[in-house]
Amino acid sequence: MNIDVTRDQVHRGDLLLVNKDNPVPEGGAETEAVNLYRHKELLDGFGLLDSSIMLSPDLAEKFSTMVDAAAGEGVKHFIVSSGYRDETKQDELYRQMGADYAMPAGYSEHNLGLSLDVGSTLGEMSDAPEGKWLTENAWKYGFTLRYPANKTAVTGILFEPWHFRYVGLPHSAIMADHDFVLEEYLAYLKAQQKASVTVDGKTYEIFYFPVAEDTTLHVPAKGSYDISGNNTDGVIVTVRL
Ligand SMILES: [Zn+2]
Question: Is the pLDDT assigned to residue 160 strictly greater than 90?
Answer without folding.
Answer: yes
